Amino acid sequence: MSEQPFLRLDQVHKRYRLGETVVHALRGVSFDLAQGAFTAVVGPSGSGKSTLLHLVGCLDEPDEGRVLLQGQDVARLSDDARSRLRNRHIGFIFQSFNLVPVLDVYENVELPLLINPDVGADERRERVLQAVRDVELEPQIHQLPDKLSGGQRQRVAIARALVTHPLLVVADEPTANLDSATTHRLIDLLLELNDKRRVTFLFSTHDEKLMGRVAHVLHLKDGALPS
Amino acid sequence: MKHGWRLAARNLGRNRRRNLATGASIALGFCGLVLIGGYAVRVERFLRTNTVYLQQVGHLAIYRDGGLERGVAQPARFALSADDQRRITSVLGGTPEVELVGRHLIGMGLAGNGCTTVPFSALGVEPEVQARVLAHPEVQAASPELARPLRGELLARYPNVAGAAALSAGLAELLGKTRIHDELAASPPNGSAALAPDCAVRTGGARADVDANVQLAALTWAGTMSAVDVEVVNLFHTPLAETEDGTLVTSLATLQQLYATDAVSYLSVYLRDARDAHRLAAALERAIDAAGVPVRVYPFDDERVGPYYAGTMPFLTSLVGFIGLLVAAVVVLSIVNAMTLSMLERTRELGMLRALGFSRGQVLGLCLREATLLAVMAVGVGLALALTIATMINHSGARFSPPGVPGSILFLLTPTPALCAALATLIVPLAAGAAWLAVRKKTRASVVGLLHEQVS
Ligand SMILES: Nc1ncnc2c1ncn2[C@@H]1O[C@H](COP(=O)(O)OP(=O)(O)O)[C@@H](O)[C@H]1O
Ligand SMILES: [Mg+2]
């Protein structure tokens, strides 16, 4: 049990077919993440960061190699089982926030809990309020996303990712659409949540300046991790 | 998942204009279906009432085997004797679905006014039964105006008039018998004219209307000459234009006297529920055969006894079916179009939902809920619209002439609750199915593919 890492990527390859051409997006990536780690994947645009995060977040399967989450080979799961796994244990934060425009802050945060029958209505409410409090958006709780600033929207997305009490949060360039002051506040918030909740964070950025704020950095280049 | 419905409702609010347009086309389509369906229900009911009650075919017509085909040529051989009638009525008496039974004699001959003669075809009825049949609630609902004579009253109202008879308006015209018993009683013509009808003035007898008397002459079933006098008590339109110039209805007793028989041509059986007709036809045929009378029992929609009903219904059904298909196609296309567009706009959002853990089925469920909700609301609007239009038309008193029917009937649209419910349960799943067509590709796509789709 103790030898098994929380997350392990083992010689992972991913290729995209675009008509005749094949893009080799990941070329044998291997690494382990410990539970509670706060890790950044850094690399230029096109280096394969998103591809890597999709595999880690169980949104996609590798063409070669294995992605093991708590020892479980993700590729072996059915689509529905993977959906359930994402819903219960993995949170996502996207570069473009991806909030539902017709739902207010509360409802957006509530969304992933609606498909979890293990969470009853009272607990759901508790959790949503707590998550909104954690990202300090209580005053905006009944506003629609288009009334919010970029930083506020990303905080809604963070609350939505954390409301399920996930083991792992995957954030693909969460700060790419934010100014630098907001970016730093957001990183502060993620670090604080990581510290408080022991959630494993894996986020990508092509902003080299952020590297100083993160202890554990994976440098991705042309789909590989040069050691 | 009640939250799914909430999200679906919110999503409908997203592109209001497009969803309004889609909803409007569903609503109008549904409205059209309800109206055309209401028309079909009305016409079917009219045709059925016309055949069953007005023409007194009954829901079931019972003939001796071969009687329908050869009864006119060989009446003595193919009629139902008094003994046959007793056996049959005793079988019918034990059948609770039967509401009423009528006995009928059919025959031909010449009608004369003293100056000229015109061929007629006569139907003998039992006046009391006829009165009950024509006053039946079905008739009152579907075509009360056709159940009333044009002028005068039904035969049953003249128990003391010997040989009371009803003439089709065309026959009365040919015979010059345009004034009926009641009118002559109210204002009798002056004595001399009444005594000496002046045949010479005009062919057809211009002065024939000095009395309401008509002489019927025919060959009895035994082949001898026979005649009876009848008194014209009412005029009516026949249900079919071809028979308008030579139809006469009188009491069964009068016709039996003319043909010197106590037999009848057929029995008409009126059921409490028309839907029992086919089942009972077969059952009664067997039971009556077993009782010793070889008969054929024809349901009213058999073309041999109800040619008008049987001939018009396929036309009506295919017309309504064709229009229904067109409307269904419009509904499907508009839903497919609207859902395709909104899925295109929301591809990334679908990917996000999948990332949050919504399964393919749950995402599809959301989309289907959206289309279903839109369809349900549109059906509500369409129904209200249709009922409003139907009410307005029904109150306008507009009339129309069904093909081949002399005279006109009220133009009514009678969409029944059953019809509306049936159409709604057709169109809502149709809308959901169309939505499924539009979104199934999206829900099958990979999550990463959805998230990366470029949207403007
Ligand atoms: N869905 C896809 N189809 C084809 N090629 C893709 C797809 N996604 C990514 N790629 C290609 O794979 C490589 C890695 O892309 P990506 O993982 O998005 O990198 P990053 O997130 O670091 O910019 C790029 O060359 C990109 O063009
Ligand atoms: Mg990327």
What labels describe this entry?
heterodimer; A: 227 residues; alpha/beta; Rossmann fold; 5-stranded parallel β-sheet; 4-stranded antiparallel β-sheet; 6 helices; 25% strand; globular; B: 456 residues; alpha+beta; 2 domains; 6-stranded mixed beta barrel; two-stranded antiparallel sheet; 12 strands; elongated; binds adenosine-5'-diphosphate; binds magnesium ion
Describe this structure in words.
The complex is a heterodimer of chains A (227) and B (456). With 227 residues, chain A is α/β, with parallel strands linked by helices. Chain A has 6 helices and 9 strands, in the order E-E-E-H-E-E-H-E-H-H-H-E-H-E-E. In chain A, helix 3 packs parallel to helix 5, helix 4 crosses helix 5 and helix 5 packs parallel to helix 6. Chain A is globular and about 50 Å long. Chain A has one domain: P-loop containing nucleotide triphosphate hydrolases (Rossmann fold, 3-Layer(aba) Sandwich). Chain A is 33% helix and 25% strand. The two termini of chain A are 27 Å apart. Helices cover 54% and strands 16% of the residues of chain B. Chain B has 18 helices and 12 strands. At the A-B interface, helix 2 and helix 3 of A face helix 1, helix 15, helix 16 and helix 18 of B. Magnesium ion binds next to helix 1 of chain A.
